[in-house]
Amino acid sequence: MNLVFHKYHGTGNDFILIDNRDGTIQLSGDIIARLCDRRFGIGADGMMLMTSRTGYDFGMVYYNSNGHESTLCGNGGRCITAFAHALGIIGNSARFLAVDGEHTSEILKEQGNVTWVRLKMADVPATSCQVPRSEKRKAKSEIISGIRHNRHCERGEAAASGIQINTGSPHLVLFVEDAAAIDVVGEGRKLRNDPQFGPDGTNVDFVEIKGDTLFVRTYERGVENETLSCGTGVTAAALAFASGQWPVGSGQWAVRSPQSAVRSHPTSMSLRAKRSNGIGDPGSGIIVETLGGKLTVYFRLENGTFTDIWLEGPAEFVFEGSINDLISQ
What we know:
329 residues, alpha+beta, Diaminopimelate Epimerase, Chain A, domain 1, 8-stranded mixed β-barrel, 17 strands
């Protein structure tokens, strides 16, 4: 079988996109992993299949580079919107179905191979959750609802504090003094696999408050490496920042990681101190810098819920091609 593909990236988070609306393409996890391999395949952080879904413009099925189907990819959602627009499937807006439910997206402008896309994310309750002690070890990442503020515990140097939040994919957000100095792969891997996050683990975001922006570096599960950008991670960082400024409840969930040496920044003091910079005021956008570029997150805080959450930024077409040998093996 000759497989036709298109390559896109969203601020350096790159994907293989395949039009499978006719449902004829069936790829194993091993083949997907091989296609995503940067030495033996096309190379990408993940792959998306565009499918047909009744009542929607299209469906989005996302696979991490390890070949496993995964949770929502925010940059992927923006890239598949640009892909659908290039194919003539949509005009300047889309309504599509992903693993976490319905999403809408909009084309803002086009400049050569770059399309500016905004993606609406699912609402996130801004209420802290107290996790019963008996549930901590068996809780799965995917069942997280709302924002959990984590403080470090008595384990001294072994502790890490942060905010646990699900923006379509689970994230642990750690505010740090100097994100550039963090060993993202080493420390991220330790926290990602902490048993408290269940068998599926979590993504880990290291966030620095940098002037009037946030700087975010992300260790992504499934890729098992740092990526240049992560859309759900950027969104998680923005909402985590906002949740540190406005009262969201008093429940605390302790996160212990015996392996990690990360020291997180004391969020309650530092976030309030930055309010004068204009970051995260209700209704405004938060500019988030990643290694691959800048994204903006817009939202409203209404009745204890972050709503009208939009992730905005560039989605760039890189190249298209076809491949046969790898999928014939």
